Amino acid sequence: MSRRQQPAARKRAPEPVTYMDKRDARVTRERKGVIVDREIDRIYNKYGAVTPERLLAAAESQTSPLHRYFEWNDSVAARQYRLEQARAMPMASKMVAVLAAEAREPLAAFPEVRRLLPSAKGQGKFKMRKEVLTEVDSRRETIERKLGVLRGWCREAIDIVELQGMREAILARLPENQ
Prior knowledge:
Elements: H1 22-25, H2 32-47, H3 52-59, H4 74-92, E1 94-96, E2 112-114, E3 116-118, E4 126-128, H5 129-134, H6 136-156, H7 164-173
Antiparallel strand pairs: 1-2, 3-4
């Protein structure tokens, strides 16, 4: 039989594809939050409370699901801890804010505000508050961060009846863009 006379191979139609939600498929790997939540529940059920010390103690065993979420190299961990301490310093540096329209006495009545603020796209860089609030991009980012804090507070306070009036008032004033 010549090539031309051979029956053409029939092309097979591709198998139909079925798409399903990851939760229904039950084949997704567990996310860190799920693993951590399960261990927190286990510790809570065992002791009636969760503490950082108990979480660390549970994670020390290499077979613990939490073990991989900690840095066990003491040199690396020490440096990371010192960096966290250093990151906290600019956030802890405060000064008193006095609005021009308000009387200047007594100073104790005026709020303390952060002296240094993250600069726009500063990747961890801080600048003096007055400078950040006069730069357009930095001011915009600062406002968005503060609005995000308010949105987060409103989400966290959703089940506290005593705060519902305040929560609703804040939500009514927040811009809709996020």
